[in-house]
Amino acid sequence: VRRHLERVSENAMLALVILSLGALDPKVHMSRRGLFNAVGSAAAAGAFAPAARAGLLGPFPGEQPTDLGVRPDGSLKGCPTNPNCWSTSGDAAHLIKPFEYSKSKADAKADLVAVLSSYPQAGVPQENGVIDGGGNKIVTDSDGYVYMHFTSKKFGFVDDVEFALNDGKVAIRSASRQGDSDLGVNAARLKYIAGELAKKDGWKTALGI
């Protein structure tokens, strides 16, 4: 690892400092999976890899939001201006359609939890690599509400994902805790979940993204 780190450019080392600051202070906004684009060098990404595997570059889970959960009107939290969030509430730039079900709420909840519980712990392959390779877990499973953590493999970034069932619809929110761009990870995750739910009877899962 030391030999690889010695070959890291000054720009790459600066990016490492930014990452470290972001881990210590949530007010410092760092680029997430697009970090290496900001560094501007594919070679830098290669140099970082051994250090990441050795645990020298993470994990960086960030702070869990304290304002999540179902609102009085049954909705979920909207999104900030960052493009690394999708929600069935809020502005048009981050808006997605809710899932719809034509069965009892209990049966729909059982379907949803079954799909979420079967989400691969090794992540889901995409054209640009695997998303959520650091695993996932259901944090809260209460009446009509499910809250999950999804973790990236390389740096241990955590995304917060929520589902709330009511009146034949499922409110949805998927958001990154840190950085700006997520290179489409949140959208890809929701599309995977939508596809798995669509295999079950009584569901409409078009997200509109």
Break the fold down into its secondary structure elements and pairings.
Blueprint: H1 2-6, H2 10-24, H3 35-39, H4 42-53, E1 85-87, E2 99-101, H5 105-117, E3 124-126, E4 129-131, E5 136-142, E6 145-151, E7 158-166, E8 169-176, H6 185-198, E9 203-204
Antiparallel strand pairs: 1-8, 2-8, 2-9, 3-4, 5-6, 6-7, 7-8
Description:
With 209 residues, this protein is of the alpha+beta class. It contains 6 helices and 9 strands, in the order ααααββαββββββαβ. Strands 1, 2, 5, 6, 7, 8 and 9 form a 7-stranded antiparallel beta sheet that branches. The N and C termini lie far apart (41 Å).
Largest sheet properties = 7 strands, antiparallel
SS-derived structural category = alpha+beta
Number of strands: 9
**Global morphology:** globular
How far from one another are the termini?
Answer: 41 Å
Q: pLDDT average, as an integer?
A: 82
- List the total number of helices: 6
Please estimate the helix content: 25-40%
In angstroms, what is the radius of gyration?
18 Å
Short structural description:
With 209 residues, this protein is an alpha+beta fold. Helix content is 31%, strand content 22%.
List keywords for this structure.
single chain; 209 residues; alpha+beta; seven-stranded antiparallel beta sheet; two-stranded antiparallel ribbon; 6 helices; 31% helix; globular; disordered N terminus
